[in-house]
Amino acid sequence: MVSENVQLQSYNTFGIGATARYFATFAGKEELVALLQEPPGGGIPHMILGGGSNVLFTKDYDGLVLRNQIKGMEVIGEDNDHVYVKAGAGENWHGFVQYCIGQNLAGLENLSLIPGNVGASPMQNIGAYGVEIKDTFHELEALHLKDHGVVTFNNADCHFGYRESVFKRQYHQQFAILSVTYRLNKTPHFNTSYGAINEELERMGVKELSIQAISQAVINIRSSKLPDPAKIGNAGSFFKNPSVDAARYESLKAAFPNVVAYPLDNGQYKLAAGWLIEQCGWKGYRHGDAGVHAKQALVLVNYGHAAGNDIYKLSQEVLDSVHEKFGVQLEREVNII
Ligand code: FAD
Ligand code: EPU
């Protein structure tokens, strides 16, 4: 059923009060196709919405918002080393991670507690604590929003990069992801490359490494520094961590000896955008209800009644000041609607 003029505040973790001209939820492919065929389905803009944890509405949406509620999780196959688990796009991501961990299937434990739904996980190749979904992603099924054909994308088809995929680029808003299949490991390859994980495991008194312990360590770290959207509106990191070439890194290092950066395989360096933003004095900044989180400068927050444009304007001020001080251009990570 299509509703008109629906308030989206409770459907986005920034808690922005924008209105959708039309709004509907769907729980299966047929229901989605019917919504796309019936009035007002054709000829107006469409947007697929998951958990709303990576969007910023800067204005009302003059089209049809389609909220994905496709459920279901099942083991669909295995080989010597792997088990293939398929999940409906509307399943909660953390619930899916726990489902896999509960069956001793490894590979997603470092990605515990990321908000949002399974269907959005390939959109920006979600990542945290040394792992990205591209490491375990097998394939997805997506419905083309215009011709309604179902297409299967394998790992290579998605062109995953750091917070990137074809769905954010050439296929932007062209497909509805219906289901995603992950290839989990029967034998875990523990990834504790992110220093904070080892520190937390030690603090927890863990003697023997397990995917359950890593998941709990990640949950503890995340809960200690990222704001809970149920309490303070936010969409996680607002910007990407920028990469610079070695020469640029050396000159930054000469001018700012404490610059936080990590060498990449391609010879470039990834800079910690949170550090750059903090150095510009933004950490803990608040103007009206728009602010920069006090424990993590990469996260912009809505303290209650900020408009999407208040957050967007603040993000532009942050971008400009980082560029002025460091000559580094930040890029927004959150999807601006
Ligand atoms: P939404 O916000 O609903 O949608 C995001 C985009 O994907 C939109 O463009 C939407 O149109 C599109 N989309 C959603 N579902 C579908 C679908 N089924 N088919 C087609 N298009 C679709 N991200 C990380 O990578 N790592 C982190 O560590 C991380 N930490 C976070 C912490 C917090 C506190 C918060 C609030 C966010 C964090 N994020 C992180 C961002 C966010 O959780 C992820 O991007 C998540 O995958 C978004 O899922 P969602 O269902 O909420 O997507
Ligand atoms: N830092 C500061 N000040 C800050 C924040 C960070 O100096 O206010 C420096 C610190 O030196 C810190 C380093 O930056 O050690 C890295 O910070 P953190 O470990 O918090 O990670 P991040 O680079 O800020 C990225 C992802 C997160 C992901 C974490 C953990 C991006 C854009 N963000 O944040 O993803 O959870 O690493 O892996 O890559 C998201 O995408 O929404 C998100 C939260």
Stretches where pLDDT is under 50 for at least 5 consecutive residues are none
Number of domains: 3
Total helix count? 7
Task: Give a quick account of the main beta sheet: strands, pairing sense, barrel closure.
Answer: 5 strands, antiparallel
β content, as a range?
A: 25-35%
Terminal CA distance reads 23 Å
**CATH architecture label name of the largest domain:** 2-Layer Sandwich
Report the CATH C-level class of the largest domain. Answer: Alpha Beta
Would you report the number of β strands? 20
Gyration radius (Cα, Å) is 20 Å
Task: Kindly report the CATH topology of the largest domain.
Answer: Uridine Diphospho-n-acetylenolpyruvylglucosamine Reductase, domain 3
Q: What is the averaged pLDDT score?
A: 97
Give the bound compounds. flavin-adenine dinucleotide, uridine-diphosphate-2(N-acetylglucosaminyl) butyric acid
Strand order of the largest sheet: 6-7-12-10-11
Helix share, percent: 10-25%
Instruction: Label the structural class.
Output: alpha+beta
The coarse silhouette is globular
Order of helices and strands: EEHEEEEEHEEEEEHHEEHEEHEEEHE
